[in-house]
């Protein structure tokens, strides 16, 4: 990556480390711990991680680290939403399908229409993994519908699938907050030869899409906590722009 971009990345990581924590992490600390714990101990999830780790890595900033965070937090949102609707007798079942969807959602990230293609991939991969066909339908549906600013919205096969889909979407878009500036942006740029000047010319557009994503959260949990993730991301983006102007003299 360009030397100046390396400097900008260092500044961004510093700013993120000093930024406020989204209240989702404070309000659901215990449930997040439970979800993380399931993610590291469950045999099925361990198998999926092993099978797909290599494919997920180097996935244009949407590699294993991204998939893990999406999985763990989708599990939390899914459980909260199912409980609100009066369900959830077995927490493990909900963690299991949300984590699977999170791990697989960007598996075709390098391809055009990655959400639809990812759903097809997930369906064939999961044939030998899940015995219950409903789980495969739910995961494939959620993956097909996870893309932002996209007209395609497949009808959910049942209530559980629709809640899973919305939970996956919201967890994926939580990543457009601080994570965007600590990881995603830089991992994406690593695979390009974009110059600092080109990066700066797209800066305002980038911040504008953050503003747009704020209105797209789908679950009640996402609507409550998502905009704060994005606001923190926008604050980080503004502080970064200030430092770029003042310390690097760009613009
Ligand atoms: Fe995606
Ligand atoms: Fe993603």
List the keywords.
251 residues, globular, binds fe (ii) ion
3D structure, described in words:
α10 crosses α13 (220-248) and α12 (203-213) runs antiparallel to α13. The protein is an all-alpha fold and 251 residues long. The longest helix has 29 residues, at 220-248. The protein is globular. Helix content is 73%, strand content 0%. The relative contact order is 0.15. It has one domain (3-248): Hypothetical protein af1432 (Orthogonal Bundle), CATH 1.10.3210. The mean pLDDT is 92. The two termini are 20 Å apart. The structure holds fe (ii) ion (2 copies).
Q: With helices defined by DSSP (H or I, 4 residues minimum), what is the helix count? A: 13
- What is the terminal-to-terminal distance? 20 Å
Small molecules bound in the structure, each named once: fe (ii) ion
The radius of gyration over CA amounts to 18 Å
Total strand segments: 0
| Shape by Cα distribution | globular
Question: What is the structure about, briefly put?
Answer:
The protein is mainly α and 251 residues long. It is built from 13 helices and no strands.
List strands and helices in order, with pairings:
Elements: H1 3-18, H2 23-27, H3 29-41, H4 43-56, H5 64-84, H6 91-104, H7 114-126, H8 133-144, H9 159-174, H10 178-189, H11 196-201, H12 203-213, H13 220-248
Helix pairs in contact: 1-10, 1-13, 3-5, 4-6, 5-6, 5-9, 6-8, 6-9, 7-8, 8-9, 9-13, 10-13, 12-13
The structure holds fe (ii) ion (FE2) (2 copies).
């Amino acid at each position: 990556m360009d030397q100046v971009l390396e400097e900008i990345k260092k500044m961004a990581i510093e700013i993120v480390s000093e930024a406020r924590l989204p209240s989702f992490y404070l309000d659901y600390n215990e449930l997040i711990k439970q979800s993380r714990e399931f993610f590291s101990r469950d045999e099925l999830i361990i198998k999926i991680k092993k099978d797909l780790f290599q494919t997920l890595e180097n996935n244009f900033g949407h590699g294993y680290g991204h998939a893990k965070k999406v999985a763990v937090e989708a599990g939390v949102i899914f459980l909260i939403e199912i409980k609100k609707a009066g369900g959830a007798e077995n927490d493990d079942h909900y963690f299991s399908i949300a984590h699977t969807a999170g791990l697989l959602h960007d598996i075709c990230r390098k391809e055009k229409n990655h959400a639809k293609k990812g759903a097809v991939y997930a369906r064939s991969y999961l044939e030998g993994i899940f015995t219950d066909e409903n789980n495969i339908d739910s995961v494939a549906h959620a993956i097909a519908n996870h893309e932002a600013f996209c007209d395609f919205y497949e009808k959910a096969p049942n209530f559980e699938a629709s809640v899973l889909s919305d939970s996956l979407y919201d967890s994926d878009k939580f990543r457009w907050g601080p994570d965007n500036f600590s990881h995603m942006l830089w991992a994406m740029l690593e695979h390009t030869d974009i110059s600092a000047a080109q990066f700066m010319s797209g800066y305002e557009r980038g911040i504008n899409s953050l503003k747009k994503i704020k209105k797209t959260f789908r679950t009640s949990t996402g609507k409550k906590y998502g905009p704060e993730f994005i606001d923190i991301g926008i604050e980080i983006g503004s502080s970064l722009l200030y430092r770029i102007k003042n310390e690097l003299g760009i613009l």
